[in-house]
């Protein structure tokens, strides 16, 4: 190891609006030393992010892993929006914090909490290198024709209206892990990554480089999600405002929090939807069908974008756990060279695995994501360089 850092441990912090998730990893062997979550910030005993991070520090200290440990090499912070300014993991300085704050209008739900987490962690350990890892960064390689919306250029540029993409840390990790599963170098493999969690996004990755993704200016675009609509005609917003008399904030809440699976059937958890489908519940069936239809459209679109697809990787809560979603998404596609093996698909497991048949030209895989490990690796790589 390089002499510029002493320890090999990285603390990963993911500061959300009402929670702080943390993991302490040892990059010498990739092991996880501690992990936890402080929830309900702002309600009850945890008054604010400062109190939450102090609790994280106390939990770690109680296990002999305190923030003052010489083994701690750096803190890695998840930051949702990097705009066009941040396309790489970035060592945090006062200037970087200011720049991330300037991006708040692009991610009003996420960046403020990320910034607060950074400020509190820097106050606790001002001497320690801290690194921002951006959810948008992996998608910065998208070519202009994929990143541009077809709207007036001057207006788009003035307000930063373009496609940024999110879940980039996961798409980066999973596309590499998929190549590793196939025993091939990532530069040789074209992959469609389907990150299906409560939020959901697809990406087209050519030789390890992202060339398109389904989320855009914000995480609202693209696939049907737990509570987000994904793609819709933007004129629906004008219609709801003019005819429905809804305000911009009401429509924002409708599309982000009360749509998607939840809006279609009242449940956003795919397990519950599966259970209800077993009882022939028509609303749950419709929600599932709309979800699958949208997913298949993106698989088709990204097949055309990539030209040659070597692998399709399912990841995150739904992608890793729902054999029914994987089966329905991949059904009837032998013309695309896609054939899922029913027995392999039904096997549960915690590690990356193939679910396609031997004959399938496209490898279909379940690849558990690990955003914390990816953030820790990128952080450590930067500070040890
Ligand atoms: P994530 O955002 O990646 O944590 O994914 C959360 C989502 O994964 C939940 O909303 C569930 O819908 C889904 N999920 C978790 N476990 C299962 C499962 N066994 N079957 C189907 N969906 C699941």
From TrEMBL:
Annotated ATP binding sites: 21, 195-199, 269-271, 317-321
Gene3D superfamilies (UniProt xref): 3.30.420.40
An example molecular function term from Gene Ontology annotations: ATP binding
Active site: 135 (proton donor/acceptor)
UniProt cofactor note: Mg(2+). Can also accept Mn(2+).
Pathway, per record: Metabolic intermediate biosynthesis; acetyl-CoA biosynthesis; acetyl-CoA from acetate: step 1/2
Superkingdom field: Bacteria
Any Pfam family: Acetate_kinase
Site (Transition state stabilizer): 167, 228
Residues holding Mg(2+): 14, 371
Cofactor(s) demanded: Mg(2+); Mn(2+)
A GO-annotated cellular component: cytoplasm
Iron is among the record's keywords: no
Enzyme class: transferase
Signal peptide, first to last residue: none
GO biological process: acetate metabolic process; acetyl-CoA biosynthetic process
Matching HAMAP family: Acetate_kinase (MF_00020)
NCBIfam families: ackA
The protein's name: Acetate kinase
């Amino acid at each position: 190891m390089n002499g510029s850092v002493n320890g090999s441990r990285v603390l990963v912090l993911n500061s959300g609006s009402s929670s702080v998730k943390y993991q302490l990893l040892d990059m010498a062997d990739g092991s996880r030393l501690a992990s936890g979550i402080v929830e309900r910030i702002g309600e009850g005993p945890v008054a604010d992010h400062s109190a939450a991070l102090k609790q994280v520090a106390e939990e770690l200290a109680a296990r002999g892993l305190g923030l003052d440990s010489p083994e701690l090499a750096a803190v890695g912070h998840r930051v949702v929006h990097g705009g066009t300014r941040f396309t790489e993991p970035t060592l945090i300085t006062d200037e970087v914090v200011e720049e991330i704050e300037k991006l708040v209008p692009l991610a009003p739900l996420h960046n403020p909490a990320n910034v607060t987490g950074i400020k509190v962690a820097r106050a606790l350990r001002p001497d320690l290198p801290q690194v921002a890892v951006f959810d948008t960064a992996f998608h910065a390689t998208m070519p202009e024709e994929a990143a541009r919306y077809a709207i007036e250029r001057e207006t788009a540029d003035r307000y930063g209206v373009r496609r940024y993409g999110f879940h980039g840390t996961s798409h980066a990790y999973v596309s590499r892990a998929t190549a590793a599963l196939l025993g091939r170098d990532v530069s040789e493999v074209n992959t469609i990554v389907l990150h299906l969690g409560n939020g959901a996004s697809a990406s087209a990755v050519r030789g390890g480089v992202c060339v398109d993704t389904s989320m855009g200016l914000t995480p609202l675009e693209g696939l049907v999600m737990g509570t987000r609509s994904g793609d819709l005609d933007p004129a629906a917003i004008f219609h709801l405002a003019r005819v429905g008399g809804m305000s911009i904030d009401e429509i924002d809440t409708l599309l982000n929090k009360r749509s998607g699976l939840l809006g279609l059937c009242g449940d956003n958890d795919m397990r519950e939807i599966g259970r209800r489908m077993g009882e022939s519940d028509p609303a749950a069936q419709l929600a599932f069908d709309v979800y699958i239809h949208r997913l298949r459209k993106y698989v088709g679109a990204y097949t055309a974008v990539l030209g040659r697809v070597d692998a399709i990787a399912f990841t995150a809560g739904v992608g890793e756990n729902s054999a029914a979603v994987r089966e329905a998404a991949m059904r009837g596609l032998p013309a695309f060279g896609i054939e899922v093996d029913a027995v392999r698909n039904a096997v549960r497991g915690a590690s990356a695995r193939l679910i396609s048949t031997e004959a399938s030209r496209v490898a279909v895989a379940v690849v558990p994501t690990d955003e914390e490990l990816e953030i820790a690796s990128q952080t450590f790589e930067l500070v040890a360089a």
